[in-house]
Design goal:
By secondary structure, the chain is α+β, with helices and mostly antiparallel strands. It has 4 helices and 5 strands. It has a 5-stranded antiparallel β-sheet with strand order 1-3-4-5-2, covered by helices on one side. The radius of gyration is 16 Å and the shape is elongated. The protein starts with 10 loop residues before the first strand and ends with a strand.
Length: 136
Amino acid sequence: MTIHEMKIGDSASMSKTVTETDVYLFAGITGELNPAHVNEQASSKTAFGGRIAHGVLSAGFISAVLAMKLPGPGTIYLGQELRFTKPVRFGDTVTATCTVTELVPEKNIAKLESICTNQHDEVVIKGVATVMPPKA
């Protein structure tokens, strides 16, 4: 979708249930092996009381919405502000929703509110994405 086809308020979402396998694959790919994510015994002593998913793993679902749905294939991701508001636990279903909040056609730039919620409709991530939509 080009910037000229987008409108303020346009929105798209995707959902994914986060599995233990997802977390371990992400840890292996990135090298981010914080015990909060991969060590049940150590993480049970934290404020979270057990293992949690990497925040950036869930933030990746925002990228999927931007790249595949709104604006869609060909989108260039320029930046992302994020605030992690609740932990994501193994088995949680995260829904990423991006909503157009600003369009700057002369620069081919769009800003989208980025919200991730869990299956209880609790916000786990909130932020703003800045993208360049594809040109025709």
